[in-house]
Amino acid sequence: MSDSHTCPLVSTAKVGKTSLIMSLVSEEFPDDVPLRAEEITIPADVTPERVPTHIVDYSGNATDHTRRAGLCSDHWIPLINDRTDKDSRVPLILVGNKSDLVEHSSMETILPIMNQYSDIETCVECSAKNLKNISELFYYAQKAVLHPTGPLYCPEEKE
Ligand code: GTP
Ligand code: MG
Q1: In CA terms, which of 23, 28, 132, 147 is 20 to 30 Å from 16?
Q2: Residue list, CB under 5 A from ion ligand 2
Q3: Ligand with an atom nearest the CA of residue 95
Q4: Is 0.80 topped by the overall pTM?
Q5: Which family does it belong to (predicted)?
């Protein structure tokens, strides 16, 4: 088992990565968000899985290319897979932030993405503003690394 677990947050600009990290740390929605949160390590004794978790914020600082990538999953998932070792599966958590702004669940949007990318371990709808599902989100990320379920369904292997 690894000694610590690194949890990088990537997304198209302004999705709320920095706000999510700051809400997790201060248990309060930040009124003024910097572009990027400082790297932090959540100590083992306050995480459910008892593993120190290093959280790394990536600023969108978006090029027009990233900004235009309509559904960010089509941009980020192939990019992450390109940059990682082919034999080591990187479990992904698909996060839908700003759930306070939508009345209905976005399951119709999420399910096709989960079917398309088998590396997505879990999806979670959350709100940095309402502090909804924030600690859960980082818990799912820990769990995905420590106890990956592996893909339950691999469309590409189907005849
Ligand atoms: P970049 O670093 O520029 O890529 O952006 P980011 O993904 O770090 O987003 P950031 O945390 O800077 O948030 C962008 C804007 O969305 C800010 O105005 C936040 O206040 C707002 N925001 C973040 N999370 C939420 C949320 O859960 N609900 C609502 N309503 N607004 C949010
Ligand atoms: Mg940011």
Answers
A1: 147
A2: 18, 59
A3: 1
A4: yes
A5: Belongs to the mitochondrial Rho GTPase family.
